[in-house]
Amino acid sequence: MEPEVLLAGSIDDSFRSRLKAEIGILFPMLILRVLENVLQPSFLQKMTILNLLDKIGGNSQIIIYIFVNYDCDVDSPNILERVVNGLLKTSLRPPSGSTTTLSTVQDIFLRHELVQCLVSIIKSMGAWMDQQLKIDTATLEQHRAYKIELQKGGSLFNRKPFKGIEFLINTKNVGNSSKEVAAFLKNNTAGLSEIVIGDYLGEKEEFALRVMHTYVAF
What we know:
Blueprint: H1 3-6, H2 13-35, H3 43-57, H4 60-71, H5 79-91, H6 104-159, H7 161-170, H8 178-187, H9 194-201, H10 206-217
Helix pairs in contact: 2-3, 2-5, 3-6, 4-6, 5-6, 6-7, 8-10
């Protein structure tokens, strides 16, 4: 999958390039630096970062863009992985013997916000996967409908060749030019009878003659 595809239509190539560079600086220096500081958290800093991550996590396009352009790029750091790991580690209680400046209320509230961020990211990933599944399903349905019409047209062609060609052209499974019909007959992907193809090409009807001349020229 090409990274450029993900934000196509929303930002141009030059902005995409700058965005990747800026994310590569913003996340490690600001977001991850605060998020991964588990032992000595600043409540205000943590909450600021969590509010930002909650907004980012709710946008599946941004989450997938980060995942593809960093975590799936061999030349880039795993930013989304570090974000998720940072959220998970911070949501756990500090290691035994460590100290924290957080009050009990702050600690509870912080963990609640951490879980919310994780949920937002998971939902965004799930929404994107659902969308991809819908696209894939729609594509499969289109292929299936095409095959059914192709088989129907092939069966009709074997009984009534002119009617079969007319059906296939009307359903846009075959182009309406003599060259496209000749190519279809030549490829014979619809179970057409070789005898009926020969009969059709031997017809004196004008269009069939043009198809025959193109067919022979292939």
